[in-house]
Amino acid sequence: MKSKRIKVDNDLNKAFRIRKEVFVDEQGVPLIDEFDEFDTLNRLCDHVLVYFHGQAVGTGRLRVVNGFGKLERICILQPYRKYGLGKLIIKALEEIAAENGLSQVKLHGQTHAEGFYKKLGYQTSSDVFIEDGIPHILMVKELPNK
């Protein structure tokens, strides 16, 4: 199990395939809503992949929004959700946020994942809202000073 910051288009395409399978095929998010102007290899955001036995099985991205690091598009292929890989994605994105001098991160978490994020130090900061037909909550975390 390892995480890797995406630096080449081939890896970005792996992330896109994972996101399509999880969000579009499994959860029913419209394809047009899943991909946006931040899905490139530039300084608009950073993307990561997580690997299990050499296979890319999870991904996430980080953008800077209003002084926060915003963790987005965090997902893992269904057969690999029981191995603690989500923690690797979150840790990698938080490290990138800290490298960029950010002290706070936030995310729109699906409500079923609220407990997972709380275990990683996130606090619920909103009522439930609907995003792409799925209930979400805003969660925030202060990053430790280094």
Mind explaining what this structure looks like?
With 146 residues, this protein is of the alpha+beta class. It has one domain (2-142): Gcn5-related N-acetyltransferase (GNAT) (Aminopeptidase). The protein is built from four helices and eight strands. Strands 1, 2, 3, 4, 5, 6, 7 and 8 form an eight-stranded mixed beta sheet that branches. Strand 4 (68-76), helix 3 and strand 5 (104-110) form a beta-alpha-beta unit. The chain starts with a strand and ends with a strand. The mean pLDDT is 92.
End-to-end distance, in Å? 25 Å
Run of helices and strands: EHHEEEHEHEEE
Number of strands: 8
Characterize the largest beta sheet: strand count, sense, and whether it forms a barrel.
Answer: 8 strands, mixed
Shape: globular
What is the count of helical runs?
Answer: 4
Average pLDDT, rounded to a whole number, is 92
Overall tally of domains = 1
Radius of gyration: 14 Å
CATH class: Alpha Beta
The CATH superfamily appears as Gcn5-related N-acetyltransferase (GNAT)
Given helix and strand content, the structural type is: alpha+beta
Regions with pLDDT < 50 over 5+ consecutive residues? none
Helix content percent band? 25-40%
Protein name: Putative N-acetyltransferase YjcF
GO molecular function, one term: glucosamine 6-phosphate N-acetyltransferase activity
InterPro entries: Acyl_CoA_acyltransferase, GNAT_dom, GNPNAT1-like
EC number: 2.3.1.-
